[in-house]
Structure formats: structure tokens, C-alpha cells
């Protein structure tokens, strides 16, 4: 006789063997953890930026890569927000489009109140950092590295990075992806530290960025020689130049390269 | 693939569905209507893309009931995009959405795997597309007439079928213009020398 | 009112025997006593203006707005209970944002007003709620052009070229009818709007008021709904005062003539 009321009415162990709980609860058992982290599919390569005495210059090419396939050649990766800021985004393009919608929503919400305050680069950066960190904490990151550029509340140049991990840092020159290896060393020759920013004018900054875009095209296998460039100053606000081509490329020297060492012909 | 031309848009596709290297269906119709003159080309998982197309079709019907006007191709593309983007972990769907209305005179949107949207004058997708990037880029012209665009699509798909083992069968085309909806089918003996 | 005290006015969701919903009619009373609101639809723009009655000298000028942005290029102004207007605008913003997340483009003005109309109507159907104590004028620019609507406490709405509500609506409507809205530039419409509000205030002269004006125009505001800039507002106020004085002088002259007779 079974004296435990919990067992009453159940098959007896003596007759049927011990009850197999794993079969009874098979439906509720989770054999896989929930998967959320993805992999980037269509991607954009580097974003590069530099401060100068009156503002910032930022650039990104127009390629949307599908693995090594140069699939889309008209992707815009720079997004002006408000009247004094821009966000440059590299990494997954579907997430880029999502982030760009977030930024539009932010701008719409900011325009509810006509109180003379406008969205500036530091506010946008702080917002984005929170979004990126929140998503990585949910194990569902937005697969991007971004640079936020513009002017801060006091009208001084502002440049700051944030990426899929929520990592953030600021510097007078910034680059994402391949640009961190190829462009930063060149940009740092122009502006090494914060105090150098004062010495640099718009012309010098623009030329440095253009030179870097050319080097990136030479050496980054996921890049294009077609790009967009944005300059932000107090005087002219956001100046957006689209569809620029990397000019004056150097290739002619190839005719003198013969063999790979000793060959002369 | 889908192509904008003078009078509207043309969609085209081969008719092969495979499970591994077995051809499960050799006369598939991959050109799917989601609204009167908004169609899509499905590539990737047949089950996923059919499910997504059915859901979009429902949303567009609802849109019409609520708004009292037909949806634009852009709205259709946005719904496709939202579904493929938010379910990117679960789906394998590469889609092209193409639609005709008199306001835009036809639009083509490419929605690849991750769920981004790309508005394009013409779009190609699927396993066979890798073989025709060069040819299509070189031979595409803006504002082709109907005869030219049908031949463009036919030649492109014939090449994709020739080189890609996962593409084959017949070439189906759907032409969306002010005049209406027209379906074309080209059999292997008709397209092989095209 | 003969029906007061019969019990049919105590609740929504109960008709009176002659087919009226008294709660809705009382809500309209709240509107009729509010500051005058107007909306103008020009060839390629929208102008909103409102007479804001100052109930206390301690209130800060330029605050407690009665014109609000629903989203990007859609605005609203309302007469009646301020918090009810706040709530409606908040609902409008939710509609605007949820439409954007669903369709990745901005909601059209006619569809927005239809959604809001249904929302307001629902507040006339349940005895646990009261109707909205506002009539709102909602307008904006979308892909199909400019639109202007007026939404009443009953939930019904109509499209207008020029709309007016609140205490001074009658004189405002008369003035709106005289304007050639199809030809008027949006900039000039701002000045006319100020004049109409000033004129509508004439019957309510014992109270102080502040004027609020906003506009939407592709040329002037890049299609965004914004308050008019300070200098234009002052120009419009000046224009309104001058026009009003002109009319008064004419009236006085008429009176003088009468006396001579």
C-alpha cells in the first residue's frame, strides 16, 4: 500500500518501475538556449573623422558588401541629426538602417518642444551609447561601430566613438574598422593631440580625410572610391557632399614593377 | 530579378526548387503576388519566403481596408523588411519587391538576408545571381522599352541557369504596367540561345 | 435647457428620448468659452493661431502653449480644456510614431485625423468616461499636399480651407471667408491670422491675452511645424493692431458723420 497521498492514483513503481520524469516533461524541456547574437550580412567598412579649429570633417564610402561581393554601391552611411551633428555608421547595414530610424525618431521627439534647445552631438552620442550597451546586454547587439561628430553645447568641435559593445571613447581623430589601422596614423600626423586642433584649418582637415579615403581604397578590400563627406562648422552648419570620387590615384608606377625580386623583364 | 523600365517593372525568375541536389520542383513559380501590382521574387528557403509573402499579403489587404487606398511598393517593401529584420535569426529569405503605380511609374526594392532595404533601378538575388553581376551591370539601360527589357531579363536568367546548378527549368516573367499584369514563360529550347 | 434635471444628461452612453447625447453637448460648451483658435490652409502651407486668455499676471509669457507638434510636419491647436488637448496630442504622437515603425514612412494627415476621430468618438460611448472638452484644428503637409481638419468633441471631423473654434469663432469665420486662401502666401497668412485673432478678441476685451502663431511650409520651414520666428510674430502683431485701429477710426468717422446729421 502506498501511504504518500501524492502517489495515489499513479502507476505503482512495483508494477511499472520508477516514474520517468524526463519523458513526462519532455515538452517543457529546453534543449537549446535562446540564440540572439547574429552575424553581420550586408556590411559597410570604415568611417573616419577629424577635428579642426572650427568644427569636424567625417567621411564614409558608399559600399554595402555582401561577404566579399561588392553588392550595393550606393549606400549612404552618414546621417545628419539636427542642425549641428552627424552620425557615421559602419558594420551591418540592416542595423544601420534601424539606428538611422532611431535617430529620426529622436529628432522628431526633440522638435515637440520649441524651446530653443537643439540636439547636439554629445546628446546624440550619449543616447546611442545607451542603446548599444542595452542591446549587447540583452545578448542581441546592434552590429555597428559609429562615430558621432559635430559641435558641443559651447560650440566647440566634438568627436566620439561608440560600438556594438557599448564601448566609447573620444579623440581629435577617430576611425572605425580598417580605418583604425590605415587612416588613424595618417590623421594623427595632422592632429596628434587635442591641443593641435587649434592649429588646423578646414582645408587641411578636408585634405587629410580625402587622402585617407584614397589610402583606404588602395588597401581595404571591402572599400570603394566613391564616398560621402560631411563638414560641420558653426558658420555653415552641416555641409553634405555626396558621391565624391577619390581623385589623383597613383597607379602608373605599376609599369616599372616586373616579377617579384630578381626578374628584369 | 526585377527591372524598372519605361512603362513599369518586370520581374523574372527561373523555376527550380531543390532539396540538396534533388530537384523538388522543376516548374516552380517564384514570382508571387502580394497586391494587385506589387509582386515579389522569392529566394532562399521556400517555406520561409512563402510564409513571409503570405503575411505581407495580409498586411497589405488590411492597409487597403484601413486607408481606403492601395499601398505603395515602398510600404510593401517596408513590411517585408520589418518581418525579415526582426526575425533575422530564424529566417533565410532573400527577397526582391517590385511594384507599379502611376505616381512612381514602378519601383524595385532589394531586401537581402539581414533585412536591410535597398531601392534600385534593377535588382538580382539568389544563388544564380552571382554569375550575372557583370553582365547585368554592363547591359542594363535606364528606360528600356518592353521588348528590350524582356530580352534583358531572359538573357540574364539564361546565363544564371547555364552556370548555376541550383537554377534551372523555365524562365517566368511578370510585367507590371499601367496596362495591367502580363505573364510570360520561356522554355529551355526558347532561351538557351538567347 | 429644458432637459436639465431629467437625468439623460448625467451619462454618456445614454441617449435622451429625442436622440441627443447631452454630455457631448456640454463638452461643446467648454469649447465655446475657450480662447479662439484658427487654422488657415494656403496654397502650399498651413498656419495656426490662438488667442490665449491670460488668467493670472503670474503666468510666464510664452508658456502653456495651445499649439503643439504632433510629428514633424503635422501640428494642432485647440480651444477648450488644456489637459484634454494635451492628451489628444499625446495620442496623436503615439499614432504618428507607431505608423512610422510599422510602415517606415510618415502617416498621412487624413489617416491620422481618422484615427484620432475614432479615438475621440470612443469617449462618447462609455459611461465611465467623459467626452473631450476640446475642438482641435489639426493640419499638416504630407506626400499629397496640405491638409486642414477640425475635430469636435463628438468625434466628427471635417476638412477646411480655414477653420475657427472657441469664443470668437463667429467673427473669425467671417474674416476667414473674406480671405483669398488659394492665392495667399503662407507668410501673409501669418499676418492675417494675427489680425483675425486680434479682431476676435474685441468681444472679449476685458481680458488680457497672448497670441501664439505657428506655421508649416516647404519654403519657410523646410516642411516642419514650427512657431513663427520672433520678428515675424512682432510684425504680424503690429499689422493686426494697425488694421484694428484703422477699422476703429473708420467707425469713429462714421459716428462723427452721424452726429453731424
UniProtKB/TrEMBL annotation, chain A:
Q: Which GO terms describe its cellular component?
A: cytoplasm; nucleus; proteasome core complex, beta-subunit complex
Cytoplasm as a keyword? yes
Tell me where on the tree of life, at the top rank, the source sits: Eukaryota
Its GO biological process annotations read: proteasomal ubiquitin-independent protein catabolic process; proteasome-mediated ubiquitin-dependent protein catabolic process
What Pfam families would the database entry show?
Proteasome
**Which Gene3D superfamilies does this chain map to?**
Glutamine Phosphoribosylpyrophosphate, subunit 1, domain 1 (3.60.20.10)
Question: What CDD domains would the database entry show?
Answer: proteasome_beta_type_4
Enumerate the InterPro entries for this protein: Ntn_hydrolases_N, Proteasome_beta4, Proteasome_bsu_CS, Proteasome_sua/b, Proteasome_suB-type
What SUPFAM superfamilies does its record include?
Answer: N-terminal nucleophile aminohydrolases (Ntn hydrolases)
Localization, per the record, is: Cytoplasm; Nucleus
- This protein's major location comes to cytoplasm
Q: What are the entry keywords?
A: Cytoplasm, Nucleus, Proteasome
What family, per the record? Answer: Belongs to the peptidase T1B family.
Function, in words: Non-catalytic component of the proteasome.
Protein name, as recorded = Proteasome subunit beta
Source organism (scientific name): Wickerhamomyces mucosus
UniProtKB/TrEMBL annotation, chain B:
For this protein, what is the EC number?
3.4.25.1
User: Which is a Pfam family this sequence falls into?
Assistant: Proteasome
Q: Tell me, what is an example of a GO biological process annotation in this record? A: proteasome-mediated ubiquitin-dependent protein catabolic process
What is this enzyme's class at the first EC digit? hydrolase
> Which keywords does the record carry?
Cytoplasm, Hydrolase, Nucleus, Protease, Proteasome, Threonine protease, Zymogen
The subcellular location is: Nucleus
**Which segment of the chain is annotated as a signal peptide?**
none
One Gene Ontology MF term:
threonine-type endopeptidase activity
The record's catalysed reaction(s) read: Cleavage of peptide bonds with very broad specificity
Superkingdom to which the source organism belongs:
Eukaryota
One cellular component (GO) term of this entry: cytoplasm
List, alphabetically, the InterPro entries matched.
Ntn_hydrolases_N, Pept_T1A_subB, Proteasome_bsu_CS, Proteasome_sua/b, Proteasome_suB-type
* Chief location bin: nucleus
The record's note on quaternary structure and interaction partners says: The 26S proteasome consists of a 20S proteasome core and two 19S regulatory subunits. The 20S proteasome core is composed of 28 subunits that are arranged in four stacked rings, resulting in a barrel-shaped structure. The two end rings are each formed by seven alpha subunits, and the two central rings are each formed by seven beta subunits. The catalytic chamber with the active sites is on the inside of the barrel.
What protein does this entry describe? Answer: proteasome endopeptidase complex
Question: What is the native source organism of this protein?
Answer: Wickerhamomyces mucosus
From TrEMBL, chain C:
What the protein does comes down to: The proteasome degrades poly-ubiquitinated proteins in the cytoplasm and in the nucleus. It is essential for the regulated turnover of proteins and for the removal of misfolded proteins. The proteasome is a multicatalytic proteinase complex that is characterized by its ability to cleave peptides with Arg, Phe, Tyr, Leu, and Glu adjacent to the leaving group at neutral or slightly basic pH. It has an ATP-dependent proteolytic activity.
Which residue intervals define the domain Proteasome alpha-type subunits in the entry?
A: 8-30
Query: What highest taxon heads this organism's lineage?
Result: Eukaryota
Q: Where is this region: Disordered?
A: 235-261
Q: Does the keyword Iron apply?
A: no
Q: What is this protein called?
A: Proteasome alpha-type subunits domain-containing protein
Q: Which Gene3D superfamilies match?
A: Glutamine Phosphoribosylpyrophosphate, subunit 1, domain 1
* Listed Acidic residues bias regions: 244-261
Under the heading InterPro entries, the entry gives:
Ntn_hydrolases_N, Proteasome_alpha, Proteasome_alpha-type, Proteasome_asu_N, Proteasome_sua/b
Q: Report the family membership.
A: Belongs to the peptidase T1A family.
Keywords from the named record: Proteasome
Q: Is the keyword Heme assigned to this protein?
A: no
Q: Name one GO cellular component term.
A: proteasome core complex, alpha-subunit complex
Biological process according to GO: proteasomal ubiquitin-independent protein catabolic process; proteasome-mediated ubiquitin-dependent protein catabolic process
Amino acid at each position: 500500500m502506498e501511504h504518500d497521498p501524492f502517489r495515489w492514483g499513479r502507476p505503482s513503481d512495483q508494477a511499472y518501475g520508477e516514474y520517468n520524469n524526463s519523458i513526462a516533461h519532455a515538452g517543457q524541456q529546453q534543449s537549446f538556449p535562446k540564440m540572439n547574437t547574429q552575424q553581420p550580412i550586408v556590411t559597410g567598412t570604415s568611417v573616419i573623422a577629424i577635428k579642426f579649429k572650427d568644427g569636424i570633417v567625417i567621411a564614409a564610402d558608399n559600399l554595402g558588401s555582401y561577404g566579399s561581393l561588392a553588392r550595393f554601391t550606393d549606400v549612404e552611411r552618414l546621417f545628419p541629426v539636427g542642425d549641428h551633428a552627424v552620425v557615421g555608421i559602419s558594420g551591418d547595414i540592416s542595423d544601420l538602417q534601424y539606428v538611422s530610424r532611431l535617430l529620426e525618431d529622436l529628432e522628431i521627439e526633440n522638435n515637440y518642444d520649441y524651446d530653443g534647445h537643439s540636439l547636439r552631438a554629445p546628446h546624440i552620442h550619449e543616447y546611442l551609447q545607451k542603446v548599444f550597451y542595452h542591446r549587447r546586454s540583452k545578448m542581441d547587439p546592434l552590429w555597428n561601430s559609429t562615430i558621432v561628430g559635430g559641435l558641443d553645447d559651447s560650440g566647440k568641435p566634438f568627436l566620439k566613438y561608440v560600438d556594438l559593445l557599448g564601448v566609447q571613447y573620444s579623440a581629435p581623430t577617430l576611425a572605425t574598422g580598417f580605418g583604425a589601422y590605415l587612416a588613424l596614423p595618417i590623421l594623427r600626423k595632422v592632429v596628434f593631440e587635442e591641443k593641435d586642433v587649434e592649429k588646423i584649418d578646414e582645408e587641411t582637415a578636408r585634405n587629410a580625410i580625402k587622402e585617407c579615403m584614397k589610402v583606404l581604397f588602395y588597401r581595404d578590400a571591402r572599400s570603394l572610391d566613391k564616398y560621402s563627406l560631411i563638414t560641420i562648422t558653426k558658420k555653415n552648419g552641416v555641409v553634405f557632399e555626396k558621391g565624391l570620387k577619390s581623385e589623383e590615384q597613383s597607379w602608373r608606377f605599376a609599369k616599372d614593377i616586373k616579377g617579384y625580386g630578381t626578374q628584369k623583364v | 530579378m526585377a527591372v524598372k523600365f519605361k512603362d513599369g517593372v518586370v520581374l523574372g525568375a527561373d523555376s527550380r526548387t531543390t532539396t540538396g541536389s534533388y530537384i523538388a520542383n522543376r516548374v516552380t513559380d517564384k514570382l508571387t503576388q502580394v497586391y494587385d501590382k506589387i509582386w515579389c521574387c522569392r529566394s532562399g528557403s521556400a517555406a520561409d519566403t512563402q510564409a513571409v509573402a503570405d503575411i505581407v499579403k495580409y498586411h497589405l489587404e488590411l492597409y487597403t481596408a484601413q486607408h481606403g487606398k492601395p499601398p505603395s511598393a515602398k510600404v510593401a517593401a517596408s513590411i517585408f523588411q520589418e518581418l525579415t529584420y526582426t526575425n533575422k535569426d530564424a529566417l533565410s529569405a532573400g527577397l526582391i519587391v517590385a511594384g507599379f503605380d502611376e505616381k512612381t511609374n514602378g519601383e524595385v526594392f532589394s531586401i537581402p538576408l539581414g533585412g536591410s532595404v535597398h531601392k534600385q533601378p534593377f535588382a538580382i538575388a539568389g544563388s544564380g545571381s552571382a554569375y550575372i553581376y557583370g553582365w547585368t551591370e554592363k547591359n542594363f539601360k535606364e528606360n528600356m522599352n518592353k521588348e528590350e527589357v524582356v530580352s534583358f531579363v531572359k538573357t540574364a536568367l539564361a546565363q544564371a541557369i547555364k552556370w548555376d546548378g541550383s537554377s534551372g527549368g523555365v524562365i517566368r516573367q511578370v510585367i507590371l504596367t499601367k496596362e495591367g499584369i502580363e505573364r510570360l514563360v520561356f522554355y529551355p529550347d526558347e532561351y538557351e540561345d538567347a | 435647457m429644458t432637459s436639465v434635471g431629467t437625468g439623460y444628461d448625467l451619462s454618456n452612453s445614454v441617449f435622451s428620448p429625442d436622440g441627443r447625447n447631452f454630455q457631448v453637448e456640454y463638452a461643446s460648451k467648454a469649447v465655446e468659452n475657450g480662447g479662439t483658435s484658427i487654422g488657415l490652409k494656403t496654397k502650399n502651407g498651413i498656419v495656426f493661431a490662438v488667442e490665449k486668455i491670460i488668467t493670472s499676471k503670474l503666468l510666464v509669457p510664452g508658456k502653456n502653449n495651445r499649439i503643439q507638434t504632433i510629428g514633424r510636419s503635422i501640428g494642432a491647436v485647440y480651444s477648450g480644456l488644456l489637459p484634454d488637448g494635451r492628451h489628444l496630442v499625446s495620442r496623436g504622437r503615439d499614432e504618428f510614431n507607431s505608423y512610422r515603425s510599422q510602415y517606415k514612412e510618415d502617416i498621412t494627415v487624413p489617416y491620422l485625423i481618422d484615427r484620432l476621430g475614432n479615438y475621440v468618438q470612443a469617449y462618447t460611448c462609455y459611461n465611465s468616461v467623459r467626452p473631450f472638452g476640446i475642438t482641435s484644428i489639426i493640419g499638416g503637409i504630407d506626400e499629397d499636399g496640405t491638409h486642414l481638419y477640425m475635430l469636435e468633441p463628438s468625434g466628427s471631423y471635417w476638412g477646411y480651407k480655414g477653420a475657427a473654434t472657441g469664443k470668437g469663432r463667429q467673427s473669425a469665420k467671417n474674416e476667414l471667408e473674406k480671405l483669398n486662401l488659394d492665392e495667399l502666401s503662407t507668410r501673409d497668412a501669418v499676418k492675417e491670422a494675427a489680425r483675425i485673432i486680434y479682431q476676435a478678441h474685441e468681444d472679449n476685451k476685458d481680458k488680457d491675452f497672448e497670441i501664439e502663431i505657428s506655421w508649416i511650409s516647404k519654403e519657410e520651414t523646410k516642411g516642419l511645424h514650427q512657431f513663427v520666428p520672433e520678428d515675424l510674430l512682432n510684425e504680424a502683431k503690429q499689422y493686426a493692431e494697425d488694421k484694428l485701429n484703422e477699422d476703429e477710426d473708420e467707425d469713429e468717422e462714421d459716428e462723427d458723420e452721424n452726429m453731424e446729421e
